[in-house]
Amino acid sequence: MISQIRVDKTILTAGAAIFATFPASAGAQVGDQAEEAGEPVRVIVVTGEGLADTPATPAYDTQVIEREQLVATGSGRIEDALAAVAGFQQFRRSDSRSSNPSAQGATLRSLGGNASSRAAVLLDGVPMADPFFGFIPFTAIAPERLASARVTRGGGSGPFGAGALAGTIELASADVATLGNFGAHLLLNDRSETEAAAHIAGNLGSGFGVVSGRWDRGKGFYTTPEADRVDATARAAFDSYSFQARGVAQLTDTLELQARGLIYDDRRTLRFDGADSSSTGQDASLRLVGRGEWQFDALAYLQARNFSNVVISSTRFVPVLDQRNTPSTGLGGKFEIRPPVGDRNVLRLGTDYRKSEGELYEIAISAFSGNITERRNAGGANTDLGFFVENDFLLGPLTLTAGARLDRYTIREGFYAAVDSSGTSLREFAYDNRAGWEESFRGGAVFEAGGGVKLRAAAYTGLRLPTLNELYRPFVVFPVTTNANAALENERLEGFEAGVDFEPNNATELSLTVFDNRVKDAIANVTLDPVTRQRQNIDAIRARGIEASAGLSLGALRFDGSIAYTGAEARQDGAEFDGNRPSQTPAWVGGATLSHRIGARGLAAATVRHVGKQFEDDLETFVLPAATTIDAYAKIPVSRAFSLVLRGENLTDEKVFTRNQGGSIDYGAPRTLWLGIAVGR
């Protein structure tokens, strides 16, 4: 993004909009006067974004999803839009309406194996992972608020690199020029479920402000196969809302202040009446971006989150566990500076910090008497302080990059306590505090070979701390109990990749990447017996594969496709699972979208996606068959202000297995048709 440039006239913009404080004629007069005086004139671009990409960004396997692709999905969900990048996955195939929130970890390159995120998801530079669980609150991230999403597969050592084990997903909020001053949509589907969203935006002096909200609610569908339903079987009902306020102010011609606040509440039911979960959050962030000779990016954020969940017995259909309260807090920030070191170098120096702390409060209940049998309390605090340096070297058509990162981490204040209904202690553990230093590196090269061909190669290491959830919280998905493990060590990544990009013109984008990634001390849910698993560090998860993507335009017609094959295996000498695929990781993932523009504001698109066979467990006992789905989207303008919106999910009504534990099965969303109206752009 160009932050400033010398031109013949003064133009003050908010995004791409003209500076609203002055009439156009006044701005021209100022520019003319500056020209006559022989003074240099600056263009001030209020982007609402961070610093511009560095020259070596293309050295890594990166794919950008533009706004049009983000909003043109059959479901309207951000996780569906991110699935356009082959290799992106959540722990389960369910979307954010019909899964337990704690299962929504994001990962890339089949480096999964449990529900925590191995990819760092950033919204306007802020890590979005839940401080306790590590899942991503996808319901709080509305696609219509975004300008773009950039997905970088592979580890990294830059800002917040301690969470970017499998890669980074960078989401950028849209500005007023992109959104327009007002926009809204209201959709209804064939189950009488609704999706409603609206925003207002405007220029504020030389900056802008945006206030937006979204509300999704519905009775849901039956995840349980019809033959297995009982009187207590419930639909996957959902009711979620989020509100975001964002402001950007231009303090000087090179200094920009950004502020964002986000509030969300998400409630779901899964499988049985009373099996209710909730996920809530209140986030705030401030960001100061300097685009002068000494460029810098300073960020601070605070997150307050909570989670609750009721587990229902699948035999007696009564509550057996009430995870009634899981408050957690995330706070942190970063500071990055880019000193002027000449035209052939781009140097980045910086530090970042993140603290995650939280507790769980839960009640175990007898399925027979209904009496409380145990009250449990557990929690702790993790911190990570990182220092990073990276430099890009520009050598004509060749750009080299090298970076290093040093992290000081702590795992402390960990405890677990259980008392009976009278308050008598049953178990009590206070775990030893731990701390240490971890180093990581990355480097790469990109060569402009001419004719639109770029050759690239990169190697990297990475780091992920175990989450508080993995360390201290056991969980039950009947009939299997998965125990926590307070002795878990950090995960470490080693990887390399090579690729070629071909962009001979603006209408053609082709990319091919081969990679080899290894996660050492990978945290996996290891089977101990038919009904018990435990989170354990295993020797490694090895993932080797190939990724390809294509973007082709022909007038109003466009094709976007992505496919990945990953040969992944879990390694542990002597273990029964040695050599097996990690749980929940398919070998083949791919998708393609064909879209057609309708005038200036309309669009029609059809998407086909395929997810290969995967296994529920580490022993490859329970299979989740391959699934292919077809979605459709159409936005048809009917006047200058209004458009008709039609969407279709899973149009062939494919049975998408999302869970298979001992023959207890859940399905993903069936065929769903949406109809509604949209106002604005």
Fourth-tier CATH superfamily name of the largest domain: TonB-dependent receptor, beta-barrel domain
**Strand segment count:** 40
Number of domains: 2
Proportion of strand residues: over 45%
Q: Per CATH, what is the topology of the largest domain?
A: Maltoporin, Chain A
The CATH class label of the largest domain is: Mainly Beta
Total of DSSP H or I helical runs spanning 4+ residues? 5
- The percent of residues in helical segments reads under 10%
Structural class based on helices, strands and sheet pairing: mainly beta
List low-pLDDT spans: 1-37
Overall outline: globular
Gap between N and C termini, in Å? 23 Å
CATH architecture of the largest domain: Beta Barrel
How would a crystallographer describe the biggest sheet?
Answer: 26 strands, mixed
Task: Provide the gyration radius in Å.
Answer: 25 Å
**Would you tell me the overall average pLDDT?**
90
Describe the protein in words.
This protein has 681 residues and is mainly β. The chain has two domains: 12-46, no CATH class; 57-679, Beta Barrel (Maltoporin, Chain A). It contains five helices and 40 strands. It has a 26-stranded mixed sheet that branches. It has a five-stranded mixed sheet with strand order 4-9-10-7-8. Strands 2-1-3 form a three-stranded mixed sheet, with no helix packed on it. The longest helix is centred in the first third of the chain and has 14 residues, at 24-37. The two termini are 23 Å apart.
